[in-house]
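Structure ticket #2291
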Amino acid sequence: MRYRIVVTAFLILLVKFSLRANVLTVTSLADNGPGSLRDLVAASASGDTIQFAVSGTILLNSAINIPHTLYVYGPGASALVVDANHVDRAFITGGNPVVLSGMTITNGYVVGAKGLDGGNGQNGMAGGSAYGGAILNDSNSDWLDLSNCWITHNTVRGGQGGRGGDNPFGDTFTPGNGGDGGVGEGGALYATGKVFIVNCTFSDNRTIGGDGGAGGTNYNPATGVIGGAGGSGGGGQGGAINLSGTAALHDRQLQNSTLSGNRVGGGLGGKGGDNVNGSGGPGGDGASGAGGAIATLLADFYCDTIVSNSAFGGIGGLGGNGAPPGPSGNSSSGTAGGVIGYAITCQSYIGNTILADNFSSGHDSNYFIGFIDEGANYIGSDDPMFCAGNNPTTRVGTVPSPLHPQLGPLAQNGGGLPTHATTLTSLVTDAGLSFGLTTDERGAPRPYDFISIPNYMGGDGSDIGAFELGNPDLSLGQGSNSVVISWPAYYGDFTLQSTTNLLLPDNWNSMTDLPALVGNVFAVTNSPVGANRFYRLISR
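Resolution: structure written out below.
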């Protein structure tokens, strides 16, 4: 059995607290009506706090607008789900600040308007842009704080461009070109103000640029015009997060957070217009997709895990049918499967962060941004070089030979937020520096220093990234005919086993009783029969 002293960990919130006038309590999981979240937000005044007396899923029919300072504290990501129901985003925030904490936000879906088709001989209109699949932080907001949230399976998609107008039989119009696809930005979050993200997971969010509209057709064989050109696809930026606002230096916008499985793609080029007697129109160009996890102007990253995100470009549209057929449009490529910066300036800091195992269909698989290396990072490939060079405590692979952090899959490893667990053999374990953070994303104490693993180059034994590998205390309490075995909830990545004979090392059996969450601990009640029984926790 493995023991150690556990220090109580408190939630870190980078919030400038103000006096709060009222505390309102959600008592209903309905989308609206008495006690619902929507009605309480509408009834709240600036500076109020909203808490929850219920757990479960709130299925929304439209976005909830928060126009003023409001503090919304949910019971935890595993206890409260705000489901946008694929009809809209979940929240529009405009207060200074708005705090959203302790919830899962999912199934947001925002699509830009389709561009209008052109009349005879007229060009199609461009598709509308789409921003913030789960949360839109609008231009009236100074800042948004997110903590202990899981934001997953949200999508933005730019609107399709309108079709170009035709040249009908007997007329002499030039067929119109297809409209360009709309831009898609921030599959989960789009923000124009400051954003502080602490202890959050963004996973499986999508940003897709709109497809270009098709070119118009020439139906009049007597005219020598070609078919209309297909519209270009719309660009996609920030598969999970798009931060377009300014940020002060060293604001630490992202801490102890995981970004995994997010994806950005550029829109497809529109098909060229057909021609009944002459050349078909050229297909439109596909658009680029950039920043599979994050697109940002400036941002700081501390103790984050950014892995398994991807960026793809759009395919060029086919040329229109004709004699000869029109040329196909150019296909584009992806840039920066992990993080892209709008401006490659040396003002974004990175420390104790894993940025690896991301993919781009074009170049810069992990990042394209001017980072200042604060040290203790684990970077898969040397895409653009760091500003002023690498800190000697940072490990960086190369494009031909990238580094892999050897993490476990995204899973519920405790604390209600999915994370990528490290292992005792991973090169990120005990290889980092905590930068003053005392917990990991789940709330587990940081650092946990394994005596058997040497610290890397003067580090403090913290693991690199959002997850801190450690061993929990196993506590026993005795009842009249049973024992209660418990361990901290942030160490949910363990299985309870028991045996009656310590001399038989292969005689341990996993217990079938599911642990119950009681406060901040997992607890299992067991009634030993006959001989003494021993208990242990093992890693899953």
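Closing remark: The two ends are 15 Å apart (CA to CA).
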